[in-house]
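User: hey, got a sec? need TauD/TfdA-like domain-containing protein folded
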Amino acid sequence: MNTFYKHGYTIINNVSDINEAKEITQKLISSIDTKKLPLWSRFLSNIKLLKCDEIPVCEDVVESSYQVLHLDMGQPIISREPQDMYLITGLYLDKIRKPVTARTRVMSLKGLFKNKKWGGKELIEKRIIRYAKKYGDGWFNPEKINTKRLACFARIVDAVADTEELKDDFNKTMGQWFRDEERLGVDESMKNEYKFYQKRGISLGKLEKHIQLKPGQLLIFDNTRVIHGRAGKRVEKEVWQMMFGVRKVSSHNITAFRKFLVNLLTEE
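Assistant: Yep! Here you go:
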């Protein structure tokens, strides 16, 4: 658990099958020390397995050799209505699988905006709220919807930096970010993502880790403290993805999450 508390993720070896992977993840969740992670005191009693699928399955994601750094399913930034929150993700590569070439990208959010140039907690929170209200994730059809959630972390950086370069890209999938119509591969797409961050003073190369899962390994990460993505192509239904969370989180607890996120991002 020390690795989970310190870095926001941990890897478990020699997991026999998806059922054991579920049990291990559930045990980790139930053992979370809320003195170390106070935000979790709001969610632990209601957290459940909300999704469990073999991924990738969506055509766009299967074809993609790259996924942008993101928060799974996006996190609600501000809301008057209850919203679902996805809090823990588990990625499990079955023991019977062959070794994979794709790498999971993981990055802790702790202290990312601690430099005073970002303007301090109040300004950062104000800008993230404004961005979510105006440009939150959503869709066009059958009508334009703004969920006031943000998934692609570059959009949160866009908000904090007050640049609004990505404001119109609210309906992209995780496989579409930083790619043009020529469907750029992993090298070109990541280069574009790195340039976006570097332009705002953040060096992803020094911050993100790449994890190449081996058969029987389970990667568990905290979807409130860690962003993740992918470098390299996965075959269809290559890994199991488990998402644990809480349905219909109150607006009060959504506000608590947002303030936690701002505190985490500015932590010294």
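Quick note: The chain has one domain: 2-265. Let me know if you need anything else on TauD/TfdA-like domain-containing protein.
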